[in-house]
Amino acid sequence: MNDALHRQVCFSLYSASRAATAVYRPLLEELGLTYPQYLVLMVLWEQDGSSVRDLGRALELDSGTLSPLLKRLESAGLLRRTRSAADERRVEVHLTEDGRALQEKALPLPQRVAEAAGLEPQELHTLQETLAKVTRALRSAAG
Amino acid sequence: MNDALHRQVCFSLYSASRAATAVYRPLLEELGLTYPQYLVLMVLWEQDGSSVRDLGRALELDSGTLSPLLKRLESAGLLRRTRSAADERRVEVHLTEDGRALQEKALPLPQRVAEAAGLEPQELHTLQETLAKVTRALRSAAG
DNA sequence: TACAAGTTGGTTGTGCACAACTAAATTGTG
DNA sequence: CACAATTTAGTTGTGCACAACCAACTTGTA
What we know:
Order of helices and strands of chain A: HHHHHEEHHH
Helix content of chain A: 55-70%
CATH class of the domain at 8-107 in chain A: Mainly Alpha
CATH topology of the domain at 8-107 in chain A: Arc Repressor Mutant, subunit A
Strand content of chain A: 5-15%
Radius of gyration of chain A: 17 Å
Largest interface: A-B, 58 and 57 residues
Number of strands of chain A: 2
Oligomer: homodimer
Structural class of chain A: mainly alpha
Largest sheet of chain A: 2 strands, antiparallel
Number of helices of chain A: 8
């Protein structure tokens, strides 16, 4: 147990985040997905046809991360990438039938991870609120 | 704004964690460090001579992550890795003078990031407690 | 209509994370 | 002692994150 370490917000967040994705990992592996791939699909399940830019905005990830990730999902047959006719700079990402079908299989996952976190609903809600507030503040501080 | 996304603990943690390390990044860059490298040094500043295994236990990182990271810190002249005389399986990690000297330069960092998080001291404390609890629960769930 | 400035997606390179595996040393047990 | 099981680091391979840079396209303005 290292005191300086455990007094830091950043380390607490870093540890908790890795622990949470570690709970997701074996569940997502059954769907053939990694956690960031699952995040991209979640955006597409709500907004099919999003551009790479839209995905980047939603997840705060840049094209250097998204481009190869999207290519992997495309070669897995879960989506297609097509240049927008209206604006040739844009690449629109469309789910395939397989990609859409995964939504149902993924439905129970968040609940299972929330349960694994071992918090009361009220406590969980407060945590979410606090994290959203912290993230906004940190982003505005980082510029 | 994607609803399904923002209702998930894991995504909140993932976003907050990346936002926090993003605040650290430019500050650590002045010291020539990445965030995980800084974490390793924090452990060594409190427990110089820790083994790779000790570092792994403290940070919950495995040797596949730590070995190359430690080599980079060694070639940066911040530490030395030596086989333990008592147990030839162990590699003990000792700070150099330069490595120890960085502690003082890094001293103000946590405070600055905590301020950037924009929480009241009481709120910050509650967050830390909740995150520690969540991390323990998630780890025991992951096995 | 030119064309500078901005937007969008991609590439390259570095450094984590983590799984799966290997090699070497130590320890427990007959 | 012998030797199987365990512990400890390290290697290899895959997939994020992110910085820095580039090419192609669009848009605003003279």
